[in-house]
Amino acid sequence: MLNRRNFLKTSAASLPLAAAIQTFNPASISAETIAVGARSGTDPKLIPLPARLAPVDPSSLPWQQNIRRVGQSNMTEHDPAVMNIEEWADYWHSAGADIVFISVTGILAFYPSKVPFHRHGKFLNGRDFFGECVAAARKRGMRVVARMSPDLNWGDALDAHPEWAMRDANGSVLLSPEESRLFRTCMFTSYMDDYVPAIMREINSLYHVDCFYTNGWPPIGSLPNCHCGICSKLPPSNTTAYWRAFNDRVLELWHKYDAIAKEKKSDSFFFANLGGNVRCGPNLDRLGKTAVWFQADNQGRTSDDPAVWGCSLQGRVCSAMMDGKFAANVSAAYSTGTVRWRNASKNPAEARMWLNETLASGMALYYHFIGSEAGFGEDRRWQKLGSDYFQWAKKHDAHLKPRRSLANIGVVMGQSTQLLYPAPAGAHAHDYMRETTHGIYATLLNGRFAFDFVHEDRLDLERISKYRALLLPNIAMLSDRQCQQIRDYVRSGGSIMASFETGLYDENLQRREEFALADLLGISKAGDVIGTNGNAYYDRIERSHPILDGFSNTNWLPGGQNRVPLKSVPDPVLTVVPGFVQYPPELAYPPASHTDEPAVVLRELGSSRLAYFPGDIERTFWLTGHGDLLRLLHNTIRWLTQDEAMTHVDGDGFLELFAWETTPGYAIHLLNYTNPNAHHGWLSAVYSLGPQNVSMTLPLGVKVKAVDLLRSGRTTPFRLEDSVLRFTIPRVDDYEVAAVTVG
Ligand SMILES: [Zn+2]
């Protein structure tokens, strides 16, 4: 069959590229082919999968690790007047939900609470709505999460406890932006120490619930900025010192609430709302050692974070921090986005893709709608989609529950850089790092690389030695210890790719005079960051190298929007042609056509290969989509990994790949993003892909019984030759899972 690699090989061997393009369907040509020429070489070298993990008896696991489906009809103040509890419970039970969220809250009590300031909802009328819902769920064998919300309260509480409020720099109380009768509570005050525990203990005294959850706290994707009496004694918000104080407080409360949950039942626990993927508020390494349930409040795309892979990205973060403990992605059935409708169903194709990504990236399904007007919703279109999906997944739980990721590339997620890094002048810091993340993510997806995220605080050799290469996309903040861990990794044979300001700040955001990894990477800083005013800089090709495969008929390649100038190095591969005026065109030429400033620095140390790009190349690819940047990054990653892979999926289309070891065998998940709405808006239709050829080398002695395609519901033939398993997935609609059963 014709695919990109074969096409390029064919064209290299026999035809000028222009003729080849006319001969073959242009749709099969990737963006890389703007670089005229062909990538030489072969398919990646398949390295054997690791020896299979020992089996685990599911009954020996904590109960939450066997939860696969979570249901939530988020309850409104009006629901006690309108919701049909039997219909609600029947729906989630028949869908196959293992557990449901039921609202206790903290803003409005859904039961006759006696805790002071726990105001009864105005439609409660003395009724025990929470208790009735708990009973209906338990009668059907579903577990129950008691859902609280400690982030807001009313004026009477504020009058009695003015110290509970968040305040601005002028001392004014911070109010809910949508409902000014509600004030925002401060997480450092006795509101969290006294009020929340009082509610938890009241619930434990009255009901049988399985665990406790807080919505609305801790904050997602940013840190609080409060000037109350307590917070004004803390370091300023958005500093590393504040982040430490914030993390200490989050963990103090988390442990406190967890202990209260366990006062009644030792297998109960507490968990809180999380999300924000790589920009999660609490430190993910510290929290990952405590949390037993990661609640990924990552309900859908927004116009300022528009990539379709937003849920998968979150799943990769959860895998990096939870070490196999439970994680679920809250997928909204309602209409998420910058303009949102909390009580209207979203596009079915979009809702389904978010569920697909949840499973593919290793999380448990979680489906969410808000409000039950008219019994169980004025808009009920979301319900069949959810129950159909849950029921399909339930048939395949064993194959869909991952045990271990099969990837040989680790992408370092610099959480502190994401939260605190200032970004070059003129750029919005948060946007800058989001663009960087999407740049490396899109690069890896385009190249069909299997990869994991690795947290900056988890760079111990034992954890990262499984990766052939670590990628550091502008991981600006690195401690001396983290840098030493990276050196140890390279000394043990690992390869790295780093870019831009990686290691130019320490863990306290103190700027370094020199790159912390200067010795390892063979680089030295020659000045401050240079941005673009007009026409961005170019890379001049100085000599041939595998990272330049496929580039011909050009002396220049595009550089990045920003770069750190470097001192010269011997025998450079690419040098910088500095930027210049882009308008007027009369002045759009380089005053200096040749410099000795490196545009990439490459090293080989034993079996390790090191690449450093002084430009913000991943982000610039995200901003522009330039195929030369994509090709340069792909070539570099292949050079770093010596073109080794654990799984290879060959075929047309833009997709995201996950490969997992499972209890029955292996699962290859393919998410089809070949869609006009992959980068904006919502999916509204599916554009199916043709054959995808999968190959992987199994551990010695492992035999294959069957390869089942779980979405299309059929089996596919396979070949096993010298431990290399090969099979073809004939067609991928929105999603396919190839489940390999071994015996
Ligand atoms: Zn405060």
Keywords:
743 residues; alpha/beta; nine-stranded parallel beta sheet; six-stranded antiparallel beta sheet; disordered N terminus; binds zinc ion
Put simply, the count of helices is 20
The biggest sheet, with number of strands, parallel, antiparallel or mixed sense and barrel status, is: 9 strands, parallel
The radius of gyration over CA amounts to 27 Å
- Strand portion, in percent? 15-25%
Helices and strands, with pairings:
Layout: H1 4-14, H2 17-23, E1 45-46, E2 69-74, H3 79-82, H4 85-95, E3 99-103, H5 129-139, E4 143-148, E5 152-154, H6 155-160, E6 182-184, H7 190-206, E7 211-214, H8 240-262, E8 270-274, H9 284-288, E9 293-296, H10 310-322, E10 326-329, E11 331-332, E12 334-335, E13 341-345, H11 348-360, E14 365-370, H12 381-395, H13 397-400, E15 402-405, E16 409-413, H14 415-420, H15 429-446, E17 451-455, H16 461-464, E18 469-472, H17 480-491, E19 495-499, H18 518-521, E20 538-541, E21 556-558, E22 574-577, E23 601-605, E24 608-613, H19 617-624, H20 627-640, E25 644-645, E26 647-651, E27 655-662, E28 665-672, E29 692-697, E30 704-709, E31 714-715, E32 718-721, E33 724-729, E34 735-742
Parallel strand pairs: 1-25, 2-3, 2-14, 3-4, 4-7, 7-8, 8-9, 9-10, 11-14, 16-17, 16-18, 18-19, 19-24
Antiparallel strand pairs: 5-6, 12-13, 15-27, 20-21, 20-22, 23-24, 26-29, 27-28, 28-34, 29-33, 30-31, 30-34, 32-33
